[in-house]
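User: Predict the full complex structure for these chains.
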Amino acid sequence: MKTKSDTDLIRRAQARRLHRGIEEPRWVQWLLIGVAGGFVGVFLVLPLINVFVQALGRGVRAYWKAVIEPDTLAAVKLTLQVAAITVPLNTVFGLVAAWVIAKFEFRGKALLNTLIDLPFAVSPVVGGLMFVILFGTHGYLGPWLQQHHIQIIFALPGIVLATVFVTFPFVAREVVAVMQASGTEQEQAALTLGASGWQTFWRVTLPNVKWGLLYGVVLCNARAMGEFGAVSVVSGHIAGRTDTLPLRVDKLYHDYNTTGAFAVASLLAVLALVTLLLKTLLEWHQERQFQRAQQVVTEPGLEPSRPQPTGVPV
Amino acid sequence: MSIELRNVSKSFGEVTAVNRVSFTVQEGELLALLGPSGCGKTTVLRMIAGLEVPTEGDIFIRGQRVNDIPVQKRNIGFVFQSYALFKNMNVFKNIAFGLKVKGWRRRAIQDRVHELLELLGLQGLERRYPHQLSGGQRQRVAIARALAPKPSVLLLDEPFGAVDARIRQELREWLVRLHTELNVTTLFVTHDQEEAMEVSSRIVILSRGNLEQIGTPREVYEEPANEFVARFIGVLNVMELTVKNGVGRAGELEFPAPGWKDGATIRIGFRPFAVHVSADPTQYRYRATIRHTFFLGVMLRVELELPSGLIVRARMSKETYTQLGLAEGKEVSFYISGYRILSDEKASLPPEIPIAPGDTWMGEGI
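Assistant: Here is the predicted structure of the two-chain assembly.
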């Protein structure tokens, strides 16, 4: 009898042979890998390293001084505040939009689906301008807001609005895909078993989209902290009050404060790296879950194929 | 009675999926909803469950009108065609779900789940996730999950559709035994007439949203209400006859047609069982050659070709076939022991007309 590893070997060899038929020649492969790798290296990795080199160029002490400058700390605080408001809002919006698109059939569904991508298609500057036109001093609602002493543009609410606009698609896109893939039958099954709509959402729907949702949240957070264009238009660049981290970097750079600019930029870069790490962890987690599932099924002796009609005592 | 439908209709926009269907299901019955795809059988099942709302008509479960009662409160167990197991929960949690949301105590949930695991032969799989199970196991988990809250009715949508043929047979027998064991009123949807005949105590036959017949497997086979049922349940030889001098003819075949005018055409049908074959080419009235033999397990279907090219399908056991020494290409003779006059597909059928092998009504014999 052939052992498991034998059949495995044969299968792999077959796969290799099959593969070779449709593969490019070796040198083409290496060339393509070289081009892709070189591109990433020159345009992404080198600049990123450079950010840290420049930031630490004048020593750790200068770096630290630049970071704990009050205006920079205020920018860190504001950025965290914006993210703390934006991400939960867009998580809820994204879930609702995804739910509506994945689970219901209605007129204008395709339009809604397209509109969700609008922030991806529109330049962030235009997004920011929309809010200025709406809420600015000379905007449609400006005079009314002024009368009631509500400050939106050049203040936190404006920055949050602009960020919400720009980061809206991240959660919705991720969750729509997962929800559409899982369909509505599990929810229906929950209903037939007596679960209320709320119970169904918490126990069935949400766990099913958990990983997609987290992935969307991570990306949304990264963008919320890094957004420049839209925020730049609505913020007013008031040092210590409406400067977020990206705006702060821009300002320091234009003031010829290279060390400061790169120090703050390195903070953002660290945030980006943490995001990437989280994203990779999430992907790895899903992969591992999948592999574990595969393993159990192919384990000899556990072959789950035959039903046991003897289960019912006759 | 357990379930009653009164003139239930369902339209999706312009399309009428179910048209004024009425039937009743007795307590403890195992009933099949049978029909070709698109006949509305799944819609009927989903309306009973409360997953669809009827456009018209009333549905009663145990005497209570349930039209306005939401799914959650109908106390039904529903097994989806794709099983719809909760993929983020293991087998134990899947089965326990219905009990948990109903607020059962931990201890009681554990007892009930273990009872079901045993009943369905799923012991040892509690910790597995749905994607770690085979098709048959998944289905049993789905059934266990549906049965856990002790539903008054069990509804199954194409329960054997998604498993391979070998397992399907075992599952059929197993479902019958499970039903005998639990005696819970069970309705299942199928497009497979053989499956319906084998498993159910009664069959509801639907076509294009209409109820064609309801009866025991034997009734629908032997006394089909109309041509649709006759053709859908089992194989039917259908011939178009032209009448001359009170005899209807199709090729060499002749059938008595008293009272029909010359030149009239009548359609008749007869079951392959009504075709009796002899290895002696001269023993019976018609001569034919065996063109094909299809093996259907114990039974065989034999295609007989008459000299005119007309094909008649016969059915016999393997033993008979061997005893008679039949083979493809062999010359045989046969007679037809009974037939039915078919008119419109939906019109009810007149009773079968028997013919004896040596009947002397025949005109110019062979």
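Confidence is low (pLDDT under 50) at residues 360-366 of chain B.
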